[in-house]
Amino acid sequence: MAWRNDTERGGTAELAGASLARHATASLAGLLAERGMSRKDLADCIGVSPGRVSQILSGDENLTMRSLAAVADALDLRVDISFREPTPAEVREPVEAERPVRVRPLARSHR
Q: What tens-digit pLDDT sequence spans the chain (111 residues)?
């Protein structure tokens, strides 16, 4: 099966990936808070630097299955990944890359 190019779907795969990463990192941050663990504690558990954990929690890092599994193992958890149809609330119109900006001219002052 050939993977679709993002341009075919208007970049929605990129947006969906970013949303999934935000969800995963928010969930992870919440778990750390619940357990009273710091980023350094997690870094020690999975054998990486605290900076690496910060990258993971920033949401900008492209997480791999192995890094998710390592974090889950360190927290005595498991990761579940499932594919499902989106709910109506999750279905959105594609985000426009550029929207025209309307600029109003400043009112002239009368002297």
A: 445 554 555 578 888 888 888 888 889 999 999 999 999 999 999 999 999 888 888 876 677 888 888 889 989 998 888 888 988 887 765 554 444 445 444 545 454
- In Å, how far are 25, 56, 84, 100, 111 from 59, measured between CA atoms? 6, 6, 23, 29, 54
Residue 24, Cβ neighbours under 10 Å: how many? 17
Q: How far apart (Å, rounded) are the C-alpha atoms in residues 12 and 29?
A: 26
Structure tokens at 5: 């190019």
Q: Which of 92, 90, 46 is nearest to 69 (CA)?
A: 46
Which residue stretches of the chain are H helix?
12-35, 39-46, 50-58, 65-74
Q: Which amino acid is at 29?
A: A
- Contact present, 59 and 21 (Cβ < 8 Å): yes
- Picking from 91, 99, 68, 100, the residue whose alpha carbon sits closest to that of residue 19 is 91
